[in-house]
Amino acid sequence: MASHTHQGTTSSALTRLNAHAAHLLGIPPDGYAHLLGMAPEHLNDDLCRPPAMTSIRIAELATVHAPWSEVSLLLTQQSAVGSLGVWDYLITSAPTPLEGIRDAGTYLAAVVDTSTDDLRITEDGDRVTLSHLNRGDLAHEAACAVRACALGLYLRRLSEAAQRRLVPLRVSLAAEAPRRHDALIELFGTRDIEFGAAVSTLTFLTRDLTAPTPHAQPGLSAVLRRHADQTLATAVPLRDWLDLFRGALASVHDEAGVPALASVARRLAVSPRTLQRRLDEHGTTWSTEVETVRRDRVSRLLHSTDLSIEAIAARSGYADARALRRAVQRWYGTTPAALRRSPDRSGVASPA
Q: Would you say 149 and 67 are in contact if contact means Cβ atoms under 8 Å apart?
């Protein structure tokens, strides 16, 4: 259950939301378009996980162009249901808003970096309090915007689940009071906002969050949780250039048995010579990386299919079964048949 946290990264959907807000604020793209994860093939791929620092940098640029309170309102206004993927529907499709926000807390990693952000839910009689903890390394104004936006998103999704505007009993923000409160009053629907709190919180009447969701469907939450698990399990974190390279190499290898250096270089928009130089800078080589991809693919095919050794050799770029057997012996000190009978070892360390 939500075991793949991908720390240090966020969803591409969250990065898209930040980039769209930056565009609306008129921030020149040359300030953020070069950041890791902003290439269209990554930004528009929901399986990619850009670095959290990409969203942080965009948030910092945004709060240079506009007050943090207005940035938080803009981000929330632009986050229509579905814009953050399955996480949105975990809240809006649950039997009750409270059950939905619990699922949202469990699967918070589907959106944000859970090494810096956390959602906690406390029930106390007729009150329910949502606490958002943010420990990210952001500039002060950007941190204020992120914390207010997080609460704004929770409130918007809970209201969408209930199909009516929910107004919190109390709003507390771990932020200094801005010069003007208009944007925050619009965001939260109340003037009762406490600033300078240790933790950002929203407090609701329990009955507001435990009333049945009007359009809930039996069993749908379980389906959405499985989908969230699958999304996290198959996500591709983009933490640095080497991650980008390995993603490109894997995709080319899936398309052809023998990946060509020139093909991967084209994917990364560099020359083959530059690609080899970058690999050297990262302490690896083309042949080592290809060997690792082949090894992982062979192990996966042996454990997940009934393909013959000859067929696996052909799919993995080996001349024949004999060449594959030699490779498996070198990697694991055993035969393909014995490896197939053993537990899955595809996660072992890369060969030297």
A: no
pLDDT in tens, 280-339: 988 999 999 998 888 988 998 898 888 999 999 988 888 899 999 999 999 999 999 999
How far apart (Å, rounded) are the C-alpha atoms in residues 299 and 297? Answer: 5
Return d(Cα 234, Cα 254) in angstroms, integer.
Answer: 15
155 near 194, Cβ under 8 Å?
no
Report the alpha-carbon distance of residue 211 to residue 57 in Å, rounded.
Answer: 39
Separation CA 158–CA 86 (nearest Å): 15
Largest CA distance in the chain: 74
Each as own residue / partner, the long-range contacts of residues 33-36 (CB below 8 Å, 24 or more positions apart, any chain) are: 36/238, 36/239, 36/240, 36/241, 36/244
C-alpha 207/C-alpha 174 separation (Å) is: 26
Q: What is the mean pLDDT of residues 43-52?
A: 92
pLDDT tens-digit profile of 208-259?
Answer: 999 999 989 999 999 999 999 999 998 989 877 888 788 778 767 655 556 7
Q: Report the predicted TM-score, pTM, of the whole model to 2 decimal places.
A: 0.72
Tokens coding 170 = 């109390």
Pairing type for strands 236-237 and 48-49 reads parallel
Tell which residue, 138, 115, 143, has the closest CA to residue 49.
Answer: 115
| Beta pairing class for 127-134 and 193-195 | unpaired
- 10 Å CB burial of residue 118 (0-12, 13-18, 19+) is middle
Task: Read off the pLDDT of residues 50-101 as tens digits, 9 standing for 90 and up.
Answer: 989 899 999 999 999 999 999 999 999 999 999 999 999 999 999 999 999 9
Question: Which residue from 47, 28, 26 is spatially nearest to 15, judged by alpha carbons?
Answer: 47
R_g over Cα of the chain? 24
Q: Is 306 exposed, middle or buried (0-12, 13-18, 19+ CB in 10 A)?
A: exposed
Show Cβ contacts of residue 340 under 8 Å, excluding neighbours closer than 6 positions.
302, 303
Interior/surface letters 48-69, b for 16+ CB within 10 angstroms, e for the rest: bbbbbbbbbbbbbbbbeebbbb
Average pLDDT over residues 196-206: 97
Residue type, 351: P
Residue 40 half-sphere exposure toward CB, CA atoms < 13 A: 2
